[in-house]
Design goal:
- This protein is an alpha+beta fold.
- It has a single domain (about 5-255), classed as Jelly Rolls, CATH 2.60.120.
- Helix content is about 30%, strand content about 20%.
- It has nine helices and 16 strands.
- Helix 2 crosses helix 5 (about 125-135).
């Protein structure tokens, strides 16, 4: 009997032959994706999932959404995990806190038998991404909470302009909101040697000169350079939730996220498990 949750039945292999990396079609897709990343800082693979897989994953994510933890309701573009020079200037980008309204289901709450989990653990997927990013190999991150998660945006949800800690981010939208929920980004705004704070300030002030919009659709796999591109999700509207999965891969083995980040994004239970003092946990989540 065919297992609908098996990755080979989730991905449209006739369009994206991840199980045949030696074929010409696979090579053409990789080259095109590299060009897109170089030119725009992002690449999207529409129709990566089959229509049945989209329905299945959306149903799974919907069923798990009550387990999502709300997390910070406001944050700066740099969150709290970057060792950047601080300033007393309240208008400086490192101090600019903007509204954030989303919840996340942590990795440890996603059942191993689910299609979401099965796809994340399917070796051809990180193999495909590694070829695009020109890495010898990508490893699944080993963080018990951050390795795989589901982002849940209810009506009025949004994510503020921000950078990611990892150099690249892989997402899969499984359900879009009725309105809004647009992914916007500014590619190449940040460099390893220069934060370009004035340019960040301009975007925060409403300058849209360099802002791009990545047209996402349910079932599309998306890859973008989130560490170097300031990005956000605009406010959603309507009763239908915006549901997106985020896959954690790294070119280095054994990568984990910060405990502080996990407590803030996935709740006090993380701190309890780590044996932290209740007062220290409250200080992080209040």
């Amino acid at each position: 009997m065919t297992d609908p949750r098996a990755p080979e039945n989730l991905v449209d292999l006739s369009r994206y032959p991840l199980n045949d990396p030696g074929c010409a079609m696979f090579g053409d897709i990789v080259r095109s994706a590299r060009n897109s990343l170089a030119e725009t800082g992002s690449v999207s693979f529409p129709g990566f999932l089959t229509p049945d897989a989209v329905d299945l994953m959306a149903a799974e994510a919907e069923a798990l959404s009550p387990l999502a933890y709300e997390g910070p309701r406001a944050a700066t573009p740099y969150f709290f995990n970057y060792d950047l020079a601080r300033t007393d200037d309240p208008d400086h980008p490192v101090n600019r806190r903007n509204r954030r309204a989303l919840s996340q289901v942590a990795y440890d709450l996603i059942p191993p038998e689910s299609a979401l989990y099965q796809l994340y653990h399917w070796d051809p997927l990180p193999g495909f991404l590694a070829r695009i990013l020109e890495h010898d190999r990508l490893y699944r991150t080993e963080d018990p909470y951050q390795a795989l998660n589901i982002s849940v945006m209810r009506e009025g949800g949004c994510q503020q302009w921000h950078y990611d800690r990892s150099s690249f981010v892989t997402t899969l939208l499984v359900q879009e909101a009725e309105t809004g929920g647009d992914f916007e980004y500014v590619p190449g705004l940040r460099e390893d040697t220069d934060e370009h704070y004035d340019a960040v300030r301009a975007v925060l002030d409403g300058d849209r000169t360099r802002v791009r919009r990545l047209e996402l659709e349910p079932g599309a796999l998306n890859l973008f350079k989130g560490h170097y591109a300031l990005h956000r999700v605009t406010e959603t509207g309507g009763a239908r939730k915006r549901l997106q999965t985020i896959f954690g891969y790294s070119p280095e083995p054994g990568v984990t996220g910060s405990l502080k980040s996990s407590i803030m994004h996935y709740g006090p239970r993380v701190g309890v498990r780590a044996g932290l003092d209740p007062a220290d946990i409250r200080a992080l989540v209040d």
